[in-house]
Amino acid sequence: GIKVELWRSSSEKVTQRAISEARARRFSVDAVETIGTDLERMTREKIFAEFHSPHLADLIPAAIPRHRAWFPDRLSYLGVAYNTKLVRREDLPGTYEGFLDPKWRGKLGIEASDIAWLAGIVKFWGEDRGMRFFERLAVMKPDVRTGHTLLTQLVAAGEVPVGLTVYSSGVVPHKRTGAPIDWEPIEPVIGQPLGIGLAKNGGAALRRLRPVARRPGALQFARPSARELEGEDRPEQLRLHHDGPRRRAGRKREVGKDLERPVSEQMKVGVRYGPHRS
């Protein structure tokens, strides 16, 4: 069967590696799975092959980028993480504008690269209200950190009492270990797509994979049939760069366990890129 060589890191490092290797014409990756904004950066570098599948009809049209260089496989939501020893849930405001109260000065943190969060709020509230919010937020002097993982860790440790731009999925592992951290959706909640791009200079393993749907709302990869491989070299390995916690280098898995990810049901029924009401 096809084995996967999986390399995991932060979205920033995944993107940096993919772009650097492509510019050096060192095509060592077959597929990249990370956040949509970084997939767009790689699309501008012409790293990905155009993607087509009849099963993309399972998604709403707004979920499919017009260039079809990558496709979404899940959504992540930005909200507020807070240290439960320092902040009570009932003290959290209902909207982000509530954090402009002077009592929150010196207690807030944001992630440095969250352009989609800024754009989403401005689009949701309108330019005047949105830009006025960020001008007033700057006066609050939030602690600006690079990396959502780092910001989440700082909230759990109590160094930053409240993180304004934290993924809900990043808080769960800390809660499981008993860390004093929780997550709350604050109006407006910004949903960002994550997806998979297939490298146009990928190896034989990638070119022989075909996307299939085995249930409504799910995109999966399947091994090629014996007939499809007849007269051709069988693919040996698929190299995947993935945005997520690092794992042991060189670890290999079956394609079906690492690439078969269900498409978000929210995306299927109508959640679009950017902000939405929770």
Account of the protein in words:
It is a single chain. This protein has two domains: 158 residues, D-Maltodextrin-Binding Protein, domain 2 (3-Layer(aba) Sandwich), CATH 3.40.190; 115 residues, Periplasmic binding protein-like II (D-Maltodextrin-Binding Protein, domain 2, 3-Layer(aba) Sandwich). Strand 9 and strand 10 form a beta hairpin. The C terminus is likely disordered. It is of the alpha/beta class.
Gist of the model:
With 278 residues, the protein is an alpha/beta fold. The chain has helices spanning 11-23, 36-44, 115-125, 127-139, 148-157, 168-176, 204-208, 226-229, 255-258, 265-269; strands spanning 3-9, 31-35, 70-83, 108-111, 143-145, 162-167, 181-184, 189-198, 210-212, 220-222, 237-243, 252-254, 274-276.
Task: Please give the structural blueprint.
Blueprint: E1 3-9, H1 11-23, E2 31-35, H2 36-44, E3 70-83, E4 108-111, H3 115-125, H4 127-139, E5 143-145, H5 148-157, E6 162-167, H6 168-176, E7 181-184, E8 189-198, H7 204-208, E9 210-212, E10 220-222, H8 226-229, E11 237-243, E12 252-254, H9 255-258, H10 265-269, E13 274-276
Helix pairs in contact: 1-2, 3-4
> Can you tell me the number of structural domains?
2
The CATH architecture of the largest domain can be given as 3-Layer(aba) Sandwich
How far is the N terminus from the C terminus? 43 Å
Structural class, by secondary structure, is alpha/beta
Spatial extent as radius of gyration: 20 Å
Counted by DSSP, the helix tally is: 10
CATH class of the largest domain: Alpha Beta
DSSP strand content = 25-35%
**What profile does the largest beta sheet have?**
11 strands, mixed
Unreliable stretches, pLDDT < 50, 5 or more residues? 208-238, 245-278
Predict the CATH topology of the largest domain.
Answer: D-Maltodextrin-Binding Protein, domain 2
Multimer state:
single chain
Q: Please trace the helix and strand order, writing H or E for each element.
A: EHEHEEHHEHEHEEHEEHEEHHE
Instruction: Kindly report the average pLDDT value.
Output: 76
Helix amount: 25-40%
Shape: globular
The count of DSSP E runs of length 2 or more, i.e. the number of strands, is 13
